[in-house]
Amino acid sequence: MRDLLRRDGVRALVRRIDAATPRDRDRAVDALRAFAILGVVCGHWLVTALVADSGTLHGASPLRYMPGLAPVSWVFQTLAVFFLVGGQVGAKGYASARARGESYGHWLRVRMLRLFRPVAGVTAVWAVAAGVMLVSGVDAGTVRALGKLVWSPLWFLLVFGVLTAATPLVARLHPLWPLTVVLYVDLFRLGLDGPAALGWINVAAGWLVPYCLGAAWACGGMSDRRTGWVLLAGGTVTTAGLVLFAGYPASMVGVPGSTLSNLDPPSLAVVTFGLAQCGAALLLLGRLRRALARPAVWAVVALLNLSAMTVFLWHQTAMIVVTASALFLYGPLPGLHTAPDTPGWVFARPAWLPVFALVLLVCRAAFGAYERRGGGRSAVVRSHSPARTPESHHA
Known about the structure:
The protein is mostly helical. The chain is built from 19 helices and 2 strands.
């Protein structure tokens, strides 16, 4: 009887979410956002390790010891999809706001509040946690390593906030312009031994490329499959050429100890790789829309988007909690505290992902309501409100 009631409750929730979703909502956009979120989370959990060494914890990456694992980064480096979706819904939302007579200042304030409000929670918790650890005698190097894991992904929000503020201008900008900037920056800093600091121009220019593509998508461009194929094929071939013949790393994420990173700052290779990802995303839109017409599939995507910022902000904390707790209770464990330098670590690591996910669900229960705070609509409708994610907001 209890199982029957539980199934009936799930079915009722699925029906309620489906009924509350506007008929004209493009569910495929939410699916792309969910894919990007899961890519970031799983990528960090798989290629980031906290190694126990003489009573301290320090970060390490299996990509440093086993370069052959670089293809893993091709699957889980999904930031270009974040910015593609962000540009699409940002431009569309701004156009809708203008049509309603809403000022740019009001539109931007609402989005910045929704984007950065959840950051306050993780900031407060980790400020207290860092202080407690230092007072209790935890090694300062360990505290720095843990803090870096939590704070380093947040650069994304700053860049996204800047691009969101520039949406009215971006909507008029062709993606080839920022792509050309990235090309010349890399030519000067890498090909002509120019100042390395030039690379930081690419932090804005590099992610502006997929954001511009998203804005063009919102304005009715890139509607044919040919565009998707051009982006996919052109991006793939160019990235392969840069890796094979121009000395760019094969990994699309940063690798500790490497002389050149594709991500810190963004390189031409990671930008062209992002173009290929954007092309693949556009080609999948039709299939995604057909799949998401099924209420149960859509409910999963909608619920993930409901807590997108919570998942993004707290997924590293979940991994840290599991790692530190297990070390305290059981000592060093394979795939969790050991150096990621053997195939044994690679096989053991996936077994820990469900544990990380379980703790992340606890974090979602504790902090998800703060992310969803806001008035005016029902909780179910707000559950797929675009304003709940770092990427942007549907109109």
